[in-house]
Automatic annotation (TrEMBL):
InterPro entries: SGNH_hydro_sf
Organism from which the protein derives: Kribbella karoonensis
Record protein name field: SGNH/GDSL hydrolase family protein
UniProt lineage: Bacteria, Bacillati, Actinomycetota, Actinomycetes, Propionibacteriales
SUPFAM superfamilies (alphabetical): SGNH hydrolase
């Protein structure tokens, strides 16, 4: 499967696409991926820059994953939806599938998760895209577990454990594969943490269906 990721540091930090590639490989799914990431960038900025549109048109991707600037769907859901529609038009024209990387609320503003969830889920429903509910899974994980910590000290960016939880959700929601029991080493995560995160991702995603 060829996947293009369009987003910012929530995608590129801790190399989320590589974490997903390694998990998928353990389940016999080969992934080739490209990441177009600019720190703090919105989808509109990516549209205006043109690089992502060129990659979509010419890259032969099966799936394009869209990740909006972290607070824009809260502050301006209409702008997010407009950008999502414009991207989806280009993605569909290229014969690819649109996926939405639903991100998480900042740790000091957990009440904003509902707005993020509504914006992303609404876009996925309207456009027939695949929703990858990472933020929803984070929300439930944080309600049940003190460790591992998912947010960095800036209250926003993901720790390695946070990105690994996200990669497990991608494996489930995008590739319909089970992360439980995958023993691929991840430098910086011990086996117990990996096992906890894998099982939590699987249980929560199944509960969300």
């Amino acid at each position: 499967m060829r996947i293009l990721f369009v987003g910012n540091s929530f995608t590129s930090n801790n190399n989320l696409p590589k974490l997903l590639k390694d998990l998928a490989g353990a389940r016999g799914i080969e992934i080739e991926h490209k990441v177009i990431s600019v720190g703090g960038a919105s989808l509109r900025q990516h549209l205006n820059a043109g690089k992502a549109l060129d990659a979509i048109a010419n890259g032969g991707y099966d799936v394009v994953v869209l990740q909006e600037q972290s607070t824009l769907p809260i502050k301006s859901p209409d702008r997010f939806r407009e950008s999502a529609r414009d991207f989806h038009k280009a993605i569909a024209a290229a014969g690819a599938r649109t996926a939405f990387y639903l991100t998480w609320a900042r740790s000091n503003a957990p009440e904003t998760q509902q707005a993020l969830t509504s914006a992303y889920a609404g876009a996925a429903s309207e456009l027939g895209g695949t929703l990858i509910p990472v933020g929803m899974v984070w929300e439930r994980f944080l309600a049940a577990h003190d460790k591992p910590v998912l947010h960095e000290s800036d209250n926003s960016h993901p720790t390695l454990a946070g990105s690994y939880l996200g990669a497990c959700v991608f494996l489930i929601a995008l590739l319909q594969a089970d992360p439980v029991g995958i023993d691929v080493p991840v430098k910086g995560l011990d086996d117990d943490t990996k096992a906890l995160v894998q099982q939590a991702a699987w249980d929560i995603c199944n509960d969300l269906v």
